[in-house]
Design a protein that fits this description.
mainly alpha; elongated
Amino acid sequence: MPGPGNGSDDVRLHVEALKKFRSRVDILLRDLQGSAAGSTKVAAQTISRSSLSGRNVPFAEADGLYAQYSRVHEALASLSRSLSDQIEVLSIGVHAAAVGFHNVEEDIRRRYATIQMRIDQEQEAREAPQNDEQQRTSDTSGGSFDPGEPK
C-alpha cells in the first residue's frame, strides 16, 4: 500500500540522503586535492639539507633539524595521501550502498579494493613498530600472570 511509512519510500529517502552525502564527500576530496594540503603539493614542498647551513658544512643542529623536518614532512605527505584515499573509499562505499555493490562497475570495484589494500598496508606499517615495542616489553617483563595457572 503506497503512502507515508511505505518501505520503498523509506529506501528512496535513504538513497537520496546517500547521494547527497556522496556529493559532499566528492566535493571535499576535490577541494583537498586542489588545496595546499593535496598529496602532490605536500610532497613537492621540500627543503634541502644544504639550505640550513651550506654544503658540506658540519653543523650537528642543522643535521638534527633536517632529520626531524624530513620525518615530519614524510608523515604529512603520508597523512595527506591516506586522507585522500579514505575519502575516496568512503565515496565509493556510499555509492555502493545506494546502488548495491553488485551494480558498481568493475573498474570502480577494483579501485576500491586497491585503495583499501593500500590503506591496510599503511596501517600495518604504522602498527609494526608499536607491536615490536610491545613484544619486547612483554618479553622482558618476567612473564605474565594467569590466575588459571596452578602454582
